[in-house]
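Section: Multi-chain targets

For targets with more than one molecule, the full set of components is provided together so that the structure can be written out for the assembly as a whole rather than chain by chain. Components appear in the order listed by the source. The example entry contains two components.
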Amino acid sequence: MELDSRLVRCFASVFPDLTTEQIKQASGKTVPTWDSLAAVTLIAVVEQEFGIDVNPLDLGDLNSYSAMKDYLRHRLNGRMSERSNP
Amino acid sequence: MKLLTALDVLKQRLPEGGPVREVFLACGFTPIHLQTFLAAHLQLYFPTERIEITTGVYGDLVGNLERLQPAATRLSALCVVIEWSDLDPRLGIRNLGGWDVSDIPDVLESLHQHSQRLCQGIERFCGTVPISISMPTLPIPPLFISPLHQQHHHELQLREAVASMAASLSRNQGIRIVSSQRLDELSPALQRFDVKAEILSGFPYSLDHASTLAELLAATIRNAPPRKGLITDLDGTLWSGILGEAGVDGICWEMDGRAHIHGLYQQFLASLASAGVLIAVASRNDEALVEQALSRKDMLLKRDSLFPLEVHWGLKSESVRRILRTWNIGPDAVVFVDDSPMEVAEVHEAFPEMDCIVFPNNNYQAFWDLMRRLRNSFGKSTVSIEDSIRLQSIRTVAAIGQSLQDAEGRADEFLKNAEASIVFSLGRDVHDSRALELINKTNQFNLNGKRFSESDWIGYLNEPGAFLLTANYEDKYGPLGKVSVLIGRDNGSLLTVDGWAMSCRAFSRRIEYQILRYLFDVFRFEEIIFEYRKTDRNGPLQGFFARLLQRPPDSVVRISNRCFSQRAPSLYHRVEDTLRHGA
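Its structure, encoded as tokens over all components, is:
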């Protein structure tokens, strides 16, 4: 839940005209303002907000809200399990 | 500031049609996040203005400047962000131009040529728009043969060339260079360069570095006016010890007495005073003893630099009130320093706008921070002639003020014997910072209360027919410096005055009448139109117009030469006229 709301906030800062519902359906194909500049800004906002560094090879796949959410869930879970290792 | 916060700041768009602050951000990299942060920081500084930032093309910093036409722009500021790769592409990592040992001398030569072109490109804008510049902030790539812990002479030559370029640019009025020392403090060197972002998107800065750099650039664009006066306590502040107990020879400020920070404080206040900052004393003490102490030959802050002295056993806030009255400045332009937290609290309660600081006795690091904080509060780009005579003119005004309040007949006699002279300067010197300060700070004798941003001021004076008239006053009691500023337009058939302000230190000397006489004599119009507007505080100007018109002034005031000649009082000033610059 927390991940969802933080990610929605990131999207809202880059796409201020979208509603929360529209954000959750958003992708590069459905949002006209999702151009290369918006994509770079979105990745930078997400990296800073979640304290992660997105691998350049993953950038091409992060082209929708749901893809971004899945990616973050995977990365953040991974980090937690790494931390729990002694 | 986080990028998310910056975007949120910019989301709160102001309505169309309001004032706009347009800034051109010239850089050779993709401006993307720096542009966002700069807009956000400027928006916080100027909350009522819509911030618009325009940029050029990637990879051509000099070309971006050369394509921008100074005369065709109505920019509020020009912001130039230089990185090493703008001085030679081989100093970046996006171009593969060769890092052979044999290439380095050519890199140096190329850097010299690029920096010359860059300087010329920037200097074209001097006098048309305020300019803020950031010199290279990123690490130089590892292209030199020496190990990281050793500086190679080629690297030193590069740095020398850039430092020389910055020094040369900073000599131009209207150009402000971002402090590399301040940037070093706020943005760690190793955390500035984002290699991934540079390679993937052509944006070389980490987000933290971009935000910090944008904040400093915004601060140089904002160019907040410095505070004007400092009121200091004595015991435990200007010196160590209590004068009433230790006696004149018992107080100290040197290393031996572990009182060195008081010596540094004196030295610092002397430095501020030499730059035109007013320094006064508010102390609960014996006046005669204080005079003796301040006359000690080893004082680093000279007695002459202090005015006025409020030394008695009454409330500090009352002392501060009297000092403000003598200086004729508001509490928001003043800093109060005292070692007693109680005194500081008492003054702060009476003057919430005043910066009230507890002197950090026995805390050397806190004292260092205090000096830096004070320098920031009083920081300015240049020391003007007015700065150098401000204290003297305030002393003069205080000394003869009572005489000038006397009856009209005696005032006439007084003015006749004052040996007063006025030096007029007519032109359009956009860099006259004192003129801009007068028009923006003066309330009582102010034509309409209109304030100008630096860029509005430059824009106005660059309009066809616009002129700037300033008046410097001096009499046998001493100089008052530049006391009046007037701006107007001569369109060939009408003379319109759009702004006029006079320092209240110059009241009752009939300078305002002499200014009008000068306008009639020089421009030779039968009538002058004043874009007057009544404000809550411009009563003295209303009175001046009412005396000439013999009725309260309307929204636009017209004064004819005939009316002026009939109603103006006798004028005794000797008048001089300096060079006119293209008016």
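The mean pLDDT of chain B is 91.
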